[in-house]
Design goal:
4-stranded antiparallel β-sheet; 6-stranded antiparallel β-sheet; 2 helices; about 190 residues; 12 strands; mainly beta; about 15% helix
């Protein structure tokens, strides 16, 4: 498969350890290939129109409330002139914390080494697909990513935000980036 020369891979890496840089680069290449796998040359050309906005944040955030969707980052604002789709890629280093959750079947407490942490992307206060995906349940930092899209947005200004949630407090994220791009509907 050939790609138009206008397609460029945009990756922002801030303070990612050297051993993780190669993994991240390979993952971004994988995402790029999956996004365009099976597309004809014409479809790829049509879908390259639009904006790409990328932001990154350093430092560490801790989830202070449980069972509530909390914004991870400031919103990304994108203005579209045509009907199209928005795709968001969120990459960060996540860690889950030990905790107790309630078993939904028995209603008994269950101790976990790492309580699952979920992530979602919202576009104009509507959840993009897929929704509420478990991003980690490990008690040590791991680089994780999440790709979501929202289809058939009308022209205008749209707000994209990433949110996280867990059944326990203490989950953390650091060294994160979100890239949002618009594709015009052919």
């Amino acid at each position: 498969m050939t790609f138009p020369s206008k397609i460029r891979i945009l990756a922002i890496h801030k303070k990612i350890k050297k051993e993780k840089t190669m993994k991240t680069a390979i993952f971004l290449l994988f995402v790029f290939l999956v996004c365009f796998a099976g597309c004809s040359k014409d479809v790829v050309r049509q879908n390259t129109a639009g904006q790409i906005i990328s932001n990154s944040w350093e430092g560490e955030n801790e989830l202070a409330e449980k069972d509530k969707w909390i914004p991870l980052t400031p919103p990304v604002i994108i203005t579209m002139t045509d009907t199209g789709n928005v795709t968001a890629l969120y990459v960060g280093e996540f860690i889950a914390r030990p905790g107790t959750i309630t078993d939904p079947d028995t209603h008994n407490p269950v101790e976990l080494i790492g309580v699952p942490v979920r992530l979602r992307i919202k576009v104009d206060d509507k959840v993009a697909a897929p929704s509420g995906v478990q991003i980690t349940a490990t008690p040590y930092y791991e680089t994780r990513s999440f790709l979501a899209s929202y289809r058939d947005l009308l022209p205008g200004t749209h707000t994209i935000i990433a949110e996280w949630n867990s059944e326990s407090t203490g989950a953390k994220i650091r060294n994160r980036a979100m890239t949002v791009w618009e594709t015009v509907t052919p």
